[in-house]
């Protein structure tokens, strides 16, 4: 069989025509040092700060220190299989997480991967975890309340949508309970909640998730969990992942609440990371940019202007204090970034005042303009009354003979303290809060024994539900108090039916 020359030339021409030159350029570096979750990589000259890189065994890392002859990479996963001399490739992607409705009701890690065993998350959208906070012109003043359902907060340290309100206190003073109750209270408020757990025990987080599930709150909540056993980089990234998921909803005109529990552990993880990257330590061994760590996170909370869709992202950062010291480095930093703080005191907690909020040290710098008119009217003097009661209480321990006015103040103060106590996972709608505080400040409880005050409140709510529903609706819908005579009549009628225990 002879081969014809023209056939060969036709074949060669065909091959040349179909030849497509694909040149693939990869930026590849080499691991020169590895240990404690940090790799030093040589050869990635064009890598970006915060860019994801991939090690030869598939584990991802994030470029942090861009030095003259090497790059410090934090490893986002197990690092025991990585060896010196291994290849590292650039991905060209900045660290990002999946976002969107598909995440609601799920428990994810700092990278947005599901950890609840309910299968993969079919999300098509992603957002970079670091984003520029909305500018001055993109925002508007906080003017809408975020009802927490907790009487002492909604009456004295109100929180507005788009605000950053710090929750600060020692360990075991009920900080997480406040966050959970606030999330539970958003059931009918059309607010999407994101609970970011940083460095907590897995058993604690599963308890929180179970509580949310039992109360039906998981239907509008995303849980981001960076557990205590996770590497430090994941604890550092968790809050940024949470706020990025929230921003997706905020920029689509929705209202979001993000809880960071807690930023002290994030700062400690960042300190660990920075020291391993050999960045110079400053006060309390924290790196110099630890203020920027929290400010660039919390500044992303905002109430957007109507041109931008009018969405909002409210941040509730937590900080744990040691022995009530709010003058330590991280607490003072975060206090200066936020719009107020709610201070929980262990003395109050142990004496049975729960939630153990100290109204004297707690403040909301912008929440007053977000409070509904009815609450503003009834709770106006509450903080002063409580402060003077605490002062008189310590003074009255030494004196036996008290004049009538002082005794009346003490009696009113005791009843105020009782009214502001609240059971666990029992958030109250704002109209019920207004009703009981109205009864308190208008003297309806002055002759009720202190031990009957809680029962009085429960029965008043039940009575109003039956006989004063139009008054409750009026408060809820208009935000104003009903006619004084009408309100007084309903409360008086109830009081006449209330039986004092012997």
UniProtKB/TrEMBL annotation:
Subcellular localization, as worded in the UniProt entry: Cell membrane; Membrane
PROSITE patterns: ATPASE_ALPHA_BETA
Major localization listed first in the record, in broad terms: membrane
Residue ranges of domain ATPase F1/V1/A1 complex alpha/beta subunit nucleotide-binding in the record: 149-364
SUPFAM superfamilies: C-terminal domain of alpha and beta subunits of F1 ATP synthase, N-terminal domain of alpha and beta subunits of F1 ATP synthase, P-loop containing nucleoside triphosphate hydrolases
The enzyme's E.C. designation: 7.1.2.2
Residues annotated as binding ATP: 169-176
Marked site: Required for activity: 362
Protein's membrane topology: Peripheral membrane protein
Residue ranges annotated for the ATP synthase alpha subunit C-terminal domain, each copy included: 371-490
Family membership noted in the UniProt record: Belongs to the ATPase alpha/beta chains family.
Role noted for this protein: Produces ATP from ADP in the presence of a proton gradient across the membrane. The alpha chain is a regulatory subunit.
NCBIfam families in the record: atpA, PRK13343.1
Protein name as catalogued: ATP synthase subunit alpha
Record organism: Alkalibacillus filiformis
């Amino acid at each position: 069989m002879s081969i014809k020359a023209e056939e060969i030339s036709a074949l060669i021409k065909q091959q040349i025509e179909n030849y497509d030159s694909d040149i693939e350029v990869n930026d590849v570096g080499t691991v020169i040092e590895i240990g404690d979750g940090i790799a030093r990589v040589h050869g990635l000259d064009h890598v970006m700060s915060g860019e994801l890189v991939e090690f030869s065994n598939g584990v991802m890392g994030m470029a942090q220190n861009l030095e003259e002859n090497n790059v410090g990479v934090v490893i986002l996963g197990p690092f025991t299989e990585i060896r010196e001399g291994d290849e590292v490739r650039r991905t060209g992607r900045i660290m990002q997480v999946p976002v969107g409705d598909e995440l609601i009701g799920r428990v994810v890690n700092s990278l947005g991967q599901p950890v609840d065993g309910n299968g993969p998350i079919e999300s098509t959208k992603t957002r970079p975890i670091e984003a520029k906070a909305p500018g001055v012109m993109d925002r508007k003043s906080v003017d809408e309340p975020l009802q927490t359902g907790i009487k002492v907060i909604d009456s004295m340290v109100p929180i507005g949508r788009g605000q950053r309100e710090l929750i600060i206190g020692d360990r075991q003073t009920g900080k997480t309970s406040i966050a959970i109750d606030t999330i539970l209270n958003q059931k009918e408020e059309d607010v999407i909640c994101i609970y970011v757990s940083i460095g907590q025990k897995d058993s604690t987080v599963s308890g929180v998730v179970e509580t949310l599930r039992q109360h039906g709150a998981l239907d509008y909540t995303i849980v981001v969990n960076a557990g205590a056993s996770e590497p430090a980089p994941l604890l550092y990234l968790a809050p940024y992942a949470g706020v990025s998921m929230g921003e997706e909803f905020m920029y689509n005109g929705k209202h979001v609440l993000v809880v960071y529990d807690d930023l002290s552990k994030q700062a400690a993880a960042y300190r660990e990371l920075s020291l391993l990257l050999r960045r110079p330590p400053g006060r309390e061994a924290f790196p110099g940019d630890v203020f920027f760590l929290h400010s660039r996170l919390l500044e992303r909370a905002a109430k957007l202007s109507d041109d931008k869709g009018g969405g909002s992202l409210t941040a509730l950062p937590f900080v744990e204090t040691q022995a009530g010291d709010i003058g330590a480095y991280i607490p003072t930093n975060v206090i200066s970034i936020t719009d107020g703080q709610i201070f929980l005191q262990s003395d109050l907690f142990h004496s049975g005042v729960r939630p153990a909020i100290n109204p004297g040290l707690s403040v909301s710098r912008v929440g007053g303009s977000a409070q509904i008119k009815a609450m503003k009217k009834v709770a106006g003097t509450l903080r002063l009354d409580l402060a003077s009661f605490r002062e008189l209480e310590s003074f009255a321990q030494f004196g036996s003979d008290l004049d009538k006015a002082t005794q009346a103040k003490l009696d009113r103060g005791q009843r105020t303290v009782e009214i502001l106590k609240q059971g666990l996972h029992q958030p109250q709608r704002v109209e019920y809060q207004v009703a009981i505080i109205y009864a308190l400040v208008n003297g309806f409880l002055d002759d009720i024994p202190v031990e009957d005050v809680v029962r009085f409140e429960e029965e008043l709510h039940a009575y109003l539900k039956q006989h004063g529903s139009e008054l409750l609706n009026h408060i809820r819908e208009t935000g104003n108090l009903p006619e004084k005579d009408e309100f007084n009549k309903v409360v008086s009628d109830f009081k006449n039916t209330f039986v004092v225990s012997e």
